[in-house]
Amino acid sequence: MMRLPPFRYFAPKTAREAAKMLADHAADEAMAVAGGTDLYPNMKRRQFTPKVLIGLHRLEESRGIEEDDDGVTIRGMTTLTQVENDEILQAHYPAIAKAARLVSAPILRNMGTIGGNLCIDTRCNYYNQNYEWRKSINFCMKKDGEICWVAPSSPRCWAVSSSDTAPVLMVLDAECTLVGPRRVRRVPVKSLYHLDGIDFLKKERDEILTEIHVPKSNGMRATYLKLRRRDSIDFPILGVAAAIETAKDGTVEKARIVLTAVESAPVQAEKAEALLVGKKLTEEWIDEAAAVAYRPAKPLDNTDLTHAYRKKMARVFVARALRELSRG
Amino acid sequence: MPPTKTDVAPEQSSPAQEAEPLSIIGKPLMKVDAMAKVAGETLFADDLAFPRMVFCKMKRSPHPHARILNVDTSKAEVLPGVLAVLVGSELPIPFGILPVSQDEHALCLDKVRFVGDPVAAVAAVDEETAEAALEHIDVEYKVLPSIMSIEEALADTDEPIHASERIDGNVHKAVTLQFGDVEEGFAEADVVREESFFFEGNTHLPMEQHAAIAVYGADGKMTVWSSTQTPHYVHRAMAKVLEMPPSRVRIIACPNGGGFGGKSDPFNHEMVVAKLSMKTRRPVKITLTREEVFYCHRGRHPVKMWVKTGIKKDGSITAMHFRSFLDGGAYGSYGVASLYYTGALQTVTYKIPRYKFEGLRVFTNKPPCGPKRGHGTVQPRFAIECHLDKLAEEIQKSPLDIRLEKVVEPFSTTANQLKIRTVGLKECLERVAERSDFRKKHRNLPRGRGIAITASSYLTGAGLPIYWNKLPHSGVQLQLDRGGGVTAFCGSTDIGQGSDSVLAYIVAEELGVEVEDVHVVTADTSLTPVDLGSYSSRVTLMTGNAAIQAARRLKPLLLDPAAEKLQVPVERLAMAHGKIFDRQYPEVSMDFAEAVVLAEAKHGTLGSTGSYTPPRSRGRYKGAGVGPSATYSYSACVLELEVDEDTGWVKIEHIWIAHDVGKPINPLLAIGQIEGSVYMGLGEALMEEQVFRKGVHKIPSMLDYKSPTFVDMPPVTSILIETLDPQGPYGAKECGQGPLLPVIPAVPIAIYDAVGVRIDETPVSPDKILKALEGRLAKPTVPEYDFPPPAEVPPMREDS
User: Fold this and answer.
1) Which of A44, A229, A306 has the highest number of chain B CBs within 10 A, making it the mutation to test binding with B?
2) Tens digit of pLDDT for each residue in B467-500?
3) How many structural domains compose chain B?
4) Looking at the complex, does the CB of residue A152 fall below 8 Å from at least one CB of chain B?
5) pTM for this one?
């Protein structure tokens, strides 16, 4: 069987302490682990061989979901099962609960956390393989090699952003709190990501994502649609999150569309968003917006099903998401 | 009384069906190993541990095709914790499951032939040390051009994968069989249709990874525990490779966590741990990783097929010409048998008076293909059912009627000289059509919704063993203990299908004891009589008949002293529910245990044996060894689905499946096999593909190799059809493989009914459906190849 490489394990009580521990080690020496559902399989396949793991499961006040005047706060170590079943979220932000429910399978959602899901490693079927396999293709740029096999002339890695919750939190204009060894900062979820399969998080490596803040919904309706081969376990090979705020007469005042799993970061379809403002969600405008929204999707042949198919589906899924929202 | 070897008319009852009403057979009883499995007590190969045990890891080729120039193990050998390093030259004797394909080595000698082919192995104090040591073995390769497709294999190549006088380039085997004048048949036909199909390769995906532990004892005996479906064949191969007398080698098959054909070959890791145990004088264990299981493979061959059929306006077939091209992977495995199977059973489902088969298997630089559930018959069944659906449409006949009218006659002989016995296919077709309301729904459902009907047949045990011999295929030995317990010894191997349970049920039924009083000892080459293994759907029929014979030989020994004691004529005595009693006055009885004691006092130690050999096949032509069976099972399936035309997504709404099982020994287990077959079939139809990129398996993991989860499983209505076959124990036929066959073609046929496009290849994935809807899906093709002239077909043997 595949075994974990040996490592030391620390379990700090505060996020600051965890951040300091990370800062005290060199970049490839120490990593933080939340639920471990993403990291441990990768460690078994030697994508990561940290000498030290900083476990976040003992952090005080790191779990739970609370409503306040500004909206709702989801703590980073809240499990995806808790997110999926939370009454506040189900009542006011059903799209978040839905996205959490569509992650993997029940047993992994019991362990996996929402903070972990936002920071999940990018995926690629040239990369998510064991050491021997990767060695047989002479490795890839993301780990131990030089080249991006899916786009050999590309200077950057094209591994795929695979978080289901990130696009939903982005369309809801959520922010997150990052606790570093010296400072605490709050950034929009959408500015957490980079279009690069290797350096995909703008978070500093010694920052811990402790909280997610979702502003009051104010009548904003959101949804998330996920494409995957099977109705369980699979990562998205396309995800579409959309949110709409309309005036009483149905005129769109604010629109958000984010595509996931078609690039190395979640992609905001800004042109389509702008196009929808001031329009009503009629079939014509939905089709028009979908035709614009799917263009920034750049799926490549590094995950399930063909990339041409996934690109085509981006358009269909955007239209379906908007159609769902048009029904109120 | 031994089971019959002669055919009897269906209305006559077989010896197995006479006498008492059945008290155990046909009842939905629990499996004998169910509680142990649920409680976690079952010891799979990986659960075994011995004092001083060490761990093995194998170093595998990173190249699809390369010459080995040098293997330097010196650095690995001196690492702390490493006990031994093994290279190919230490086990130079080749092996393979078929006598004609002895082309594998425990560790590669001169060449590696696919990514994952092993070149060296390490035994170390733990897995981590063994794995780390692999990095210190230096292998120097000369990389050769790789051959990754049938077309590349057929192209001229300077470096064939196997250099042998018997092999022409990369053509492992080419065959032509002809039965009757097909050209004459096509001339008689009103409609002649020809077209090509492609069936993608896929793998078994058992839950349990292969594992093996070898203990070479101080007494010079070798014992190997392994997750294998065929301990007898491993025994033979192991003795050969280790150059040990078979009498000193013992193979024990542990309960398998699923097999599906993927554990039916002797494997290199089994040989390697045995040799390492000899070198280290310690128990040596290996458990493969999931990636390595993908490299062991032996799964479904990718097959390109071409079929030409002539039919008359009434739907009857005048002739069929079938060609198959198998992508075999790097080694022979069961490949020659797989090749013949792609042509053997076409005639067993429908009446085909003239038949020609041409088949070709090539070597490629991929993990070897072999037998997977439905071995070699799944791909042609896919092609033929799709083809027949189009033929039915061409002559404007219902796909149900065209099938019903063609069903082979019971107790007939096919064009390729296969002996048919009972046939429940008409009833299967009628029942699934009726339950699904097929006649009303077909071509009448709203666009996007479709329905299909398909049919198939399968062997109940291969008529011939893997290696030529005249010995029994299965043997059972019974022993009685003075407390009334019965121990049944048999070489059969439980791979989850329930063969241990079937053995216990039959022994309990025959001796009139409770199932709980039967102990089964199975799959141990030193303790149990030979059974050839869990493949070709043979175990229930063959082990069952052997068990009946053993029990019926024991019975008189028990009844005789009991009759004396009870003062009842022996013919009036019956055995059931742990008692021996007078049929006329049931209160005149004694406990089974008491009868055992009386019998032992009278006869001495009690025991008996039984064995079974299938009836001799009739064909005498070269290739006639593949296809014959004691009897064939039949299945029919109706599948209803919905297609989303914007996404190409398919949702299977319902499956109705009827299976002619002869007689279910346990209906619960039979239905379990049917549902499992449906599940596996849908995976192959919709998503599974063993595919390669840059010479490497593209997705060797359970996450990325897509196979349905249970939330993807549709509702299934299973119908058991009883035909009471004279060959089977109590009339039973197989049910472990046959029900998979009709499921796969039903998917594309129903898609055609739903949205009007034909997908002539697997898997039928959403991207292909969209392409087909856009008119952009290319039709499958087959390569050009000059097949050899047909082999001579001598007249059939008379029925023996």
Assistant:
1) A229
2) 999 999 999 999 999 999 999 999 999 999 999 9
3) 3
4) no
5) 0.96
